[in-house]
Design goal:
By secondary structure, the protein is α+β, with helices and mostly antiparallel strands. It has two domains: 39 residues; 109 residues, Immunoglobulin-like (Sandwich). It is 15% helix and 33% strand. The strands form four sheets. Strands 6, 7, 10, 11, 12 and 13 form a six-stranded antiparallel sheet that branches. β12 and β13 form a beta hairpin. The longest helix has 25 residues. The chain is globular.
Amino acid sequence: MRIETRRGARRGPSRGWSGMWLELASRVRRFALGCLCLAACEPPGYGRHTGPDASASSDGGNSVQPDAATDATAGCDHSFRLANEQTASSVWLTGDFVQWAADPTHGAIAFTLGVDGAWTGSYDFAAGSYQYKFIVDGSQWIPDPTDSDSVPDGFGGMNSVYVCTE
């Protein structure tokens, strides 16, 4: 790689300290940007689809209905409940069925806080096996504490697993 200096002279990275520092800085920037993209673009479990992709559109509430291509009579309308998080400002459901959406704007399912202090929401699944997590306060990704069926998420944590058998 050749680097352009202020005086217009061309130097290779091995010909001077300034060239080596510029090359090192460039590589560090590329590495840091790559890590940032991975952290921001690929939440836990991203890309590990265990069931059919379920394209869904929000109905503005706590549940998401299947799109027109999905048979509405086949599948499972499953309710989720997260207790002991009554101090949270929000709880969302995400998983491979919504491409690990990180917020409701991108497809995560918003939950409602009930009078009993538990957060609840539902999703209409097509038959298959799905990995999921809850997102508490927009940043804390946790598995379902009531679901004993789980798999490693590839990041040192666990994903909960839901199986719809119609």
